[in-house]
Amino acid sequence: MPSFPEIMHRTFFRTLSLLSPAAQGVLLRRYFDWWHRSPDPWKLATDSYEQQKYLATLQHLPPRPYRRIIEVGCAEGVFTHALAAAFPDAEITGVDVSERALARARERVRGNARVRFVRADIVTHRPAERFDLVFCSETLYYLGRAERLRRASARLGDLLAPGGVLVAVHPWPEAARLHHYLDASLPRLAKEVYTATYRPFAISIYGTPQAEA
């Protein structure tokens, strides 16, 4: 069961989602810029739980060629850096609302021309290209209400190229609610729930059909 501070945290973001998507995006950007006033506020680069989650996420990927990868909600690029190491031939895009976080992400992968970062939010971002692999981790609960989650889930699906794979990772059991919106529009290939940790999480894998020859 979520703690009282976590419940209040989620309530705050549901309240923000009463605003228009543009206004919500502005406030989220300011909120996360404030959080990133100090480097790595969630200890993503050093916490053993986060490292376990990253490793488990990569292990669940279907064995396919991934030429174009996007990470939605990349923060300071810790997992983006891991993706660049795991897929050295892929072009990788990291997306986040915080420019402060992205500045550190760019420093983390400095010199790697295959990795780029874009400041945008999931609800309004419409890139021209499509991706073979899409990651969305610890992000959807910031969007609040059902209508905003449906819109974000549709945007995630729109990012996928034919035969593409979407990976969603969120705390359990909240992931059951968050991933429900993805279940409504994308075929789910696999799901794994990790409970042997102080903060249980679920990994859901989705895929789109291959293009016809």
TrEMBL record:
Which keywords describe this protein according to UniProt?
A: Methyltransferase, S-adenosyl-L-methionine, Transferase
Q: What InterPro entries does the record tag this protein with?
A: SAM-dependent_MTases_sf, SAM-MeTfrase_NodS-like
Q: What are this entry's molecular-function GO terms? A: S-adenosylmethionine-dependent methyltransferase activity
User: Which Gene3D superfamilies does this UniProt record tie to the protein?
Assistant: Vaccinia Virus protein VP39 (3.40.50.150)
Q: Which residues cross the membrane?
A: none
Per UniProt, what is one Pfam family of this protein? NodS
The UniProt record lists the keyword Chaperone? no
Q: Which GO terms describe its biological process?
A: methylation; oligosaccharide biosynthetic process
Q: Which domain of life is it from?
A: Bacteria
The molecule here is called Nodulation protein S (NodS)
High-level lineage: Bacteria, Bacillati, Actinomycetota, Actinomycetes, Streptosporangiales
